[in-house]
Amino acid sequence: MSRINKKVTAAVAGGLLLSTLATAAAAQDGTPLTRANMVLTGYGSATYQAALNNEFANNFTASISPIFLYNMGGDVLFEAELEFGLSGEATTTTLEYAQIDYLGFERVIITAGKFMIPFGIFGDRLHPSWINKLPTPPLLFGHGHGGVAEGSLLPLLSDAGVMARFAQPLQSGWSLNLSLYATQGPTLVDETAGGEDGHGDEHGAGEDGPASIGAPAVGFGIAFDDNNKNKMIGGRLGLVKGPNFEVNFSAFNAMYDEGNYQSYNAHAVSLQWRLRSVEFKGEYVHLMQEFQSDQTFPTLITSGYYVQLARRIGRWEPVVRWSQLLDGTIDSEAVLPGKEILALGLDYWIDATIPVKLAYEVRLDADDSLLLQWAFGF
Amino acid sequence: MKYVSKAFLLGISLLALPAGVSGQDPAKVAEGARTWAQNCTRCHNARSPLERNDSDWAIIVGHMRARANLTKRQATMITIYLQTINRPEGFQVLVTPEAPEETPAAPAAKDPKPDKAGKKKPVSGSGF
Question: What is the nearest CA distance from A346 to chain B, expressed in angstroms?
Answer without folding.
Answer: 16
